[in-house]
Amino acid sequence: MQTKLLQTVLDSLGDGLIVVDMAGRLLIWNAAVENLIGAAPTALALNQWPEALGLYEPVECKTYPAEQLPMARALRGESCECEILVRTPLTAKSIWIEVTAHPLKDQNANVVGAVTAVRNITQRKISEQEIQRLHDELESRVRQRTAELEAANKELESFTYSVAHDLRAPLRHIVGFAQILEEDFRPKLEPEAQQYLTRIQQGTRRMGLLVDELLNLAKVGRQPLNLQLVNLAPIAERVIAELAPSHEGREVECKLGELSWANCDANLVKQVFQHLISNAIKYTRLRQHAVIEIGKTEVGGQMCIFVRDNGVGFNMKYVGKLFGVFQRLHRNEDFEGTGIGLATVQRIIQKHRGRVWAEGEMDRGATFYFTLKGLEQEPGAQESK
Amino acid sequence: MKAFDAEILLIEDNQDDLDLTLHALKRENLANNILIARDGEEALDFFFCRGNYAERNFDAPPRLVLLDLKLPKVNGIEVLQQVKSDPRTKSIPVVVLTSSKEELDLVRSYNLGANSYIQKPVNFTEFRQTVKHLGLYWLVVNQPAPQGACEPAGQEP
Questions:
Q1: Considering only Cβ atoms within 10 Å of each terminal Cβ, which end of chain B, N or C, has fewer?
Q2: Does CATH place domain A2-120 in 3.90.640.90?
Q3: What does the alpha-carbon distance between residue A162 and residue A170 come to, in Å, rounded to a whole number?
Q4: Is A180 helix (H, G, I), strand (E, B) or coil?
């Protein structure tokens, strides 16, 4: 009666249960085992199980080594849990099972058998594989899209480069002939004609500047970064000195504060300072006393370099247009420029995986900020190196 | 002096560039003895005394060659390669004068043995200065290889 009740209980379980003695003979099993593996392994010795029942180890799908079966390991006194792939004519299709085995011990703690629970984990395995598949697919799609985007960017940059490059030749011809006209034929030209000639020359000068800056912008995008640990202060200092002739006769005060070292391409970062400081010099032109500050500060928990001026500033409404190619917030008659400088600054900083942004107020000056890797270090921390 | 003996060989296909370069050379009184080749093939005929230049002699090389890189038929790099790899012509000074500042063009030109590489400046005053310096240096300052001292063909180790 007790045995029958026990069997009924066992058969009602969803998980399979197998109990063997030390010789590997089946003592107890339930209906779930037969459902899972197609038959009860009643007449089989333990070492025949893998072959007869179609048990495979899950990674390489080789026949499961009999001595590694959870039940065999449990008989050696070891508790274990593992996954087995079951593929046999007895079962309709392959299934995955999770097997947990424990040694069965008598009062003296001697191993007298093993108890094994078997659970069907096929659905879980299929889900896992599906997740993995989707994950791989997503990754490969991201990789593909990134590659496409990079290729498109590269193409655009090389297009810009070749257009700018090819524009140089006809431009050179116009410049050359206009100058010959001016030098060799000026006395023969009416004053009005001379005027137009001057306008042609102004136009070509501007175009020359545009072409050169476009070429430079494309070059910045194309050339690989030469990253080094660089002390920024001497770079800024050199740029300030180089730009001094551009504000001769004006009262311009350049305050160079404490900067720091950064992991960057020195030539490109020099260009950043050149653009930002020459902008500051340009847009403070109307000030009696122009003040340009360059320093390091913390914004939102992030260290950044800033270049601040007390110039004409800009309306924050247009801040989004500041860094676009050919975007300008001033008329060329008021402040000359090509609209490529800040686009170049942004390209350089983006290439360094940093960030550049600006704050300004009409007639109250502007501040440009940028981040670079390695700014967090204390100034002078590397100087002892 | 025979008709084919030129002090300067100017290899240039673009008429505008040609006129501007000649104008600059004239201004510096350097245009007295210039020969012009309009493509790479014509230039090679000149160098190797072939075709229209069959009457020319290897013993009277130009003192300066101005070479554009973008040329029809045979491009400037190919011209440079042939001139600089032949013992009869390799001592002739060849200055690359081009629009291009492409690193690859620079590297190739120097590797092939160009004597100088100049990017034509957009600014015409600068261009004239450049032409003046070139003429002064190669026609006046520089000492050319002795005539007839070219190694005969085929005897290079």
A1: C
A2: no
A3: 14
A4: helix
Q: Which CATH class name applies to A128-221?
A: mainly alpha
Q: How many domains in chain B?
A: 1
CB atoms within 10 A of CB A351: 16
DSSP string, B81-150: HHHHHSTTTTTS-EEEEES---HHHHHHHHHHT-SEEEEPPSSHHHHHHHHHHHHIIIIIIS-PPPTT-S
Nearest beta carbon to residue A175 from set B99, B100, B122: B122
Q: How many CB atoms lie within 10 A of CB A223?
A: 13
Which candidate, B4, B51, B12, B6, places its Cα nearest to that of B32?
Answer: B6
Residue A39 has pLDDT above 90, yes or no: no
Secondary structure of residue A100 in the 3-state scheme: strand
Give percent of chain A above pLDDT 70: 96
| B83-102 residues touching A, CB cutoff 8 A | 99-100
What pLDDT does B1 receive?
45
Phi-psi region of A302 (alpha: psi -120 to 50; beta: other; left: phi over 0): beta
Chain A hits for B22, Cβ within 8 Å: none
* CA distance to partner chain A, nearest, from residue B56 (Å): 33
Residues 36-75 of B with CB under 8 A from A: none
The mean of the pLDDT values for chain B is 87
Q: What share of chain A is helix, strand, coil (3-state, %, to 5)?
A: 50, 20, 30
Rounded to a whole number of angstroms, the distance from the CA of A166 to the nearest CA of chain B is 8
- What ipTM was assigned to the predicted interfaces of this complex? 0.81
**Chain B residue at shortest CA distance from A161:** B102
Segments making up each domain of chain A, as ranges:
2-120, 128-221, 225-370
**Residue B153 scores a pLDDT above 60:** no
Which of B82, B80, B77 lies closest to B100, judged by CA?
B77
**CATH level 2 (architecture), domain A225-370:** 2-Layer Sandwich (3.30)
Q: From the CA of B139, how many Å to the nearest CA of chain A?
A: 24
Beta strands of A197-272 (E only): which ranges? 228-231, 252-256, 261-264
Chains A and B form CB pairs within 8 A to the count of: 38
Single-letter amino acid code for the residue at B71: L
Tell whether B132 lies on the interface with A, counting CB pairs under 8 A: no
Whole-number Å distance between alpha carbons of A106 and A21: 12
- Would residue B78 count as lying in a domain? yes
Any idea what the CATH number is for the domain that residue B22 is in?
3.40.50.2300
Model confidence over A143-190: pLDDT tens digits?
999 899 888 888 887 787 778 778 888 999 999 999 999 999 988 999
